[in-house]
Write a structure and sequence with these properties.
14% of the residues lie in helices and 37% in strands. The chain has 260 residues and is mainly beta.
């Protein structure tokens, strides 16, 4: 099966998790909803086109690998303050401005938010669409990523990519197999293994390049019609052989089969 290989790299990236009160937590791997929004933005879809977003997310199958994670993952926290008045309106992703409520004392103190980011991280993603015989194809997505309809960002709007996202096509029986076929770049981490995540239903089998650490339900999907996050899927996390460091590692290096 054909997959797209993407490299997500930026001075700051944010793969959002469940926001708790005013604290925007992050995860190590991109969420299905984030990738859906990223691709839809490249395609020029409007956020109000909920059914198109939902269908794209439902078709998305992907695996991700952390190729570079300086110092084991450097997190920065952006502490934000805003003094809001009762008449101030807020921008929302629902397409409607957000008003204010509460008594006069509500506005005596500034509004506070905390937003975490990863610094100088690089994540490689192998993704495909299932089923393949619908009007939106992988080729459409690849073209859109190379000439996006709008500026792209990785997770949050300050997270501008530092390079083109689309790298190549890669073939593989699973998303993880396609990911393993794509070597990390020379300036990636040089450890023998790299952290990865892949769909749990795509069996790894007897592949000595992969070591599964855990299997769990990940809540990284969004109901694009209601606008709420809540969907989940079973995934595996673990370590995969670093093909570039394979010469000094314990596992044999895989052979890259990227196609342009």
């Amino acid at each position: 099966m054909r997959h797209l290989i993407l490299r997500l790299e930026a001075p700051l990236m944010a793969f959002g998790g469940e926001t708790i009160d005013n604290y925007g937590v992050i995860r190590r791997f991109p969420a299905a909803s984030m990738l859906t929004g990223l691709l839809a933005n490249a395609l020029g879809w409007r956020r109000t086109e909920a059914k198109r977003h939902q269908r794209l997310q439902d078709r998305l199958v992907f695996a991700a690998r952390i190729d570079r994670e300086p110092a084991g993952g450097v997190r920065l926290t952006d502490f934000q303050t805003a003094q809001l008045g009762a008449s101030d309106m807020g921008w929302t992703t629902r397409g409607l401005p957000e008003g204010r409520a509460g008594g006069a004392n509500t506005y005596n103190a500034p509004h506070l938010r905390y937003r975490d980011y990863f610094a100088d991280m690089r994540v490689t993603v192998a993704l495909r669409l299932e089923p393949v015989d619908e009007s939106l194809t992988l080729a459409n997505v690849a073209e859109a990523l190379q000439e996006p309809a709008r500026p792209l960002f990785i997770g949050r709007k300050p997270c501008l990519p530092s390079r083109p996202l689309f790298v190549a096509y890669a073939d593989g029986k699973t998303a993880l197999a396609a990911l393993l076929a794509s070597q990390p770049e020379e300036d990636s981490d040089n450890s023998n293994t790299l952290a990865a995540m892949w769909p749990a239903y795509e069996a790894v089998g007897e592949d000595d390049r992969v070591k599964t650490a855990r299997r769990y339900m990940l809540t990284d999907q969004r109901n694009w019609v209601s606008g709420l996050h809540g969907g989940g899927r079973w995934v595996c996390e673990g370590a995969v052989c670093n093909a570039r460091a394979g010469a000094v590692g314990e596992s044999p290096a895989s052979t890259a089969r990227e196609q342009t």
